[in-house]
Specification:
Blueprint: E1 4-16, E2 29-32, E3 38-43, E4 55-65, H1 71-77, H2 81-107, H3 122-127, E5 136-140, E6 146-148, H4 170-181, H5 188-202, H6 206-229, H7 235-243, H8 247-259, H9 265-286, H10 297-315
Antiparallel strand pairs: 1-4, 1-5, 2-3, 3-4, 5-6
Helix pairs in contact: 1-2, 5-6, 5-10, 6-8, 6-9, 6-10, 8-9, 9-10
């Protein structure tokens, strides 16, 4: 059986190569992948005339497929599901190399402050939307390089940036002008929650759920502490009490007690219920039982909206 090689220019974690010579760029890193295939990563040198020529974020990834994986060649020639199967395998190789390289940079290379980044998603990996590097080449033995360009199914629904909510009408633009004239400070926590809500449309639910509930819990606990401070004279006793108060207690017992005094208590209790859904999802994440596909995105977004409303409520009480 002949050897199959795959090659693609990819975006990698950014690093400096100050003091390198031309020959140094020709020394690839070798990775033995989970299935035994071999990957080589070779940094691509920038044009020396550039101001930041030694800042590198592109590399050649070359993978030598095990000879016994003959179905690989068939998949590279195929269309439809067979081609997609090979596309997913190649993408898995890329993500494995990316993560292992990033880890080695931080651990062995002592580059502890490498900019946090993630591998491109599978669509961008093949389309070049992010890296700008289109096309993946493959060849068998000493044959010519051929292109592999799998066709992805059309995504259902519009992308977030094309939805009607993103349309800024002239009236809305005037409203923005009026708001800016008021010169109000930006409520940082509410602003951060709004960005996390938007994140659910772009990068998934898990990260948005975890970060939003942590942020909300911190602000809610600050509020509970401030309320209890007036009733507990000793700081030591206060610290002991706060140590026993969980998010569940603060959200479902203490906060409703405060809300009962408000004329809009029915509305605010609905917000508490919305946030409680997010709290339960965060617990699932912490216990390893979270299922993104089985999670209601609309409820997650509604829960984050309700966090914003509850933060505004506790700030005014």
């Amino acid at each position: 059986m002949g050897k199959i090689k795959i090659k693609k220019e990819i975006r990698m974690p950014m690093l400096q190569t100050r003091g390198w010579k031309d020959a140094d760029y020709d020394k690839p890193l070798e990775f033995k992948l989970k299935d035994g295939s071999i990957a080589n990563l070779c940094l691509i040198r920038n044009d020396e005339s550039l101001e930041y020529a030694n800042i590198i974020d592109n590399a050649w990834l070359e993978i030598e497929i095990l000879p016994e994986q003959n179905e690989f060649k068939n998949g590279l020639f195929s269309k439809g599901e067979k081609a997609m199967e090979q596309a997913r395998k190649i993408y898995a190789y890329y993500t494995e190399v990316y993560e292992r390289f990033d880890y080695a940079l931080r651990k062995v290379g002592k580059a502890k402050d490498v900019m946090p980044d993630s591998p491109e998603n599978i669509r961008d990996f093949y389309s070049g939307d992010i890296s700008g590097q289109e096309g993946l080449g493959w060849k068998k033995d000493k044959g010519e390089w051929k292109k592999f360009n799998p066709k992805f199914k059309q995504q259902r629904g519009k992308r977030a940036c094309f939805k009607s909510q993103q349309v800024i009408k002239t009236k809305t633009w005037n409203d923005i002008k009026k708001e800016l004239k008021k010169n109000h400070r930006v409520p940082s926590e509410c602003h951060e929650l709004m960005k996390l809500r938007a994140q659910t449309e772009w990068t998934g639910l898990k990260d948005a759920i975890f970060k939003s509930t942590i942020l909300f819990e911190v602000k809610l606990m600050e509020y509970v502490r401030a309320k209890m401070q007036a009733r507990v004279s000793s700081k030591i006793k206060l610290d002991d009490l706060m140590g026993d108060i969980t998010l569940n207690v603060a959200l479902n017992i203490i906060l409703p007690f405060v809300i009962k005094k408000n004329k809009n208590q029915v509305k605010f209790m609905k917000y508490v219920s919305d946030v409680d859904y997010l709290k339960k999802q965060r617990n699932k994440i912490a216990h390893g039982s979270f299922d993104e596909r089985g999670t209601d995105k609309a409820k997650v977004r509604k829960g984050i909206d309700s966090m914003v409303k509850l933060l505004k409520f506790i700030e005014s009480n």
